Amino acid sequence: MWHQIRYEQLSFWRNPQSAFFTFVFPVVIITIFGAMFAGGDEDSYFYGLSALEYYVPTIAAVSVLGSCYSQLAIVLAMRRQNGILKRVRATPLPAWMYFLGLLAHCVVVSVVDVALIVGVGGLFGVPFPSPAQLPAIAVTLVLGAAAFCALGVAVASLIRNSEAAPSVVQVILFPLVFISGTYFPIHSGVLNRISGALPVRPFNEALLGPFAQHTGFDWRNLGVLLAWGAVGAMVAVRRFRWDPRPE
Asked: So where does this one cross the membrane (predicted)?
């Protein structure tokens, strides 16, 4: 297991351009928002929070989505088409250990990303979470990472070729991110009910509570995440292919 995690980390960091933009994109976004909203007071538009108190957890959620869903689905589609997955399957490495190594790698990248975002937010005056909130944040991040990894593998199993992977991944992700209140709060009751049954908004709210509202575990939203993770895992188990599809 340690060897597999180390392999995933080495392959990630030896692609410096990909690693650089994985961390830079969310940091740039939170920096821009920090410059725009620094010094702002509480606003009812942001549910009684300052703009930055709202954006730090939601941008942290986006960084987890990028690491555990988008990149994972694209990487698996590329590895399958290049024949890497076929060769991995022929080794003694169990399939469950291969995917557990991917999950651990995604969690490590997500933790680094979230730490950078929280650090930048702190530079703009956003208070750090108290120690009492850290267990809820840790459980939410791990469960969210696991759920979105499962969904990433499920989507990768439906992608026909690596060239189509970025388009397929983003056409699913972008609408969910926007209707889930990631970049601006949604005050439509209908949209909130719809997005509340989908995975992104529950993840946002499960992080928003302990990060900004000093609450504990959000069991309802964590349950939604767990359900979507189970759905993704079932689709992945039934549909995932190790061999490239014939042209």
From this structure: 20-39, 54-77, 98-124, 136-156, 168-186, 219-237
